[in-house]
Predict the 3D structure of the following.
Amino acid sequence: MRFPSRPSPKAVATAAASLSLAGTAAFVVPAAFMATTPGGHGGASHAAAAVTASPRASGSQGPAVAAAPRQLYVPDLIAAVPGGITSAQLAKIARLSGVRAVLPVDGGNVTVNGRSANVLGVSPQAFRPWTPLSTAGSAAVWSALGQGKLVSTAAAARKLKLSAGKSYQVSAATDEQVPFGGPTALSIPGADAVVDLTRSAQLGLARNFAVLINAPEANLASLKTQVQSVVGKGGQVVNLVSYSLATAGSLPVAADVPAGAPSDYLDLFKRSAAEYCPGMSWTVLAAIAEVESGDGANDGPSSAGALGPMQFLPSTWAEWGVDGFGPPGTPQIMNPLDAVPSAARLLCAAGAGNSATLPAAIFAYNHATWYVNEVLALANEYARSSG
């Protein structure tokens, strides 16, 4: 996928009436999106994106911070269209069989602190349910975003050399000093950071550059073909479930992995299931890790105090934490080598080793029916994608 590059301030000054692209910069997913600049022209209205649930607002200092959503939407597909997603295209995609929610987002490749970055422009309230639980439950993240601050992934914060509380020059259609609100998990591969829609318009990000699609019960291969038909030959569609699975297979578990321990998340999921819950598919652990923390991209603490890649409450960890594949000694809640096998151990005790009682075991992990359905659907997609 390719993020649209933004014209320089000088180019805008000489051609303000007609924003256009001189080139594109890669959006790091395994496909090439050739997106031109829609600017403020056409495209679906952001208000029309309300296919997703809207969290209720609650009082807070500064901008209102909505309560954590009761439902999350794991992005299954993302589609980008030259000129932006139109209202008609958005409506057609939303009506496709199996599609539960869609969300158009702005986007652009800009310069942050002198370095290239792919940035999404989003409505914080609409985008919040599309992030991992650890991010969705963080009031600080959404307060910062609502105040016009830049929020990035942890990897991007390191790459861009950003420190929370400081402001940095962002060069796009304009040059702006933008405060950095901190790192978190975003669950959109290739996206380095997000800003709210006001800041997006100020920077000149491409309007409705792409649409996120949640379809947990659909056959994603078939749905991808249908979405491609809607967006036309100029647009492209990427299966994010397959991409996240491939990412897990190349994502190091830790900087220093003991000899003989799993070295990547995919191997860790497989060995944890095999050794700590025979009968349970490793895909269940993979799905929980993605929904909870984006495979460790946001270790918390959550609003409830949960910690680590599998988001254990300290009280639960005291009972179920096990010294799995990590260094010998006290189990470490923040270490995936202990956290993932501990999750397998807890799930197994609740019946995850038996397909008949697996849903109840997942419910015991997180008491929400939507959570059970999302984890099972994502696990099934992982199973199909891994062949």
Remarks:
- The chain has two domains: 2-239, 251-386.
- Residues 7-43, 45-64 have pLDDT under 50 and may be disordered.
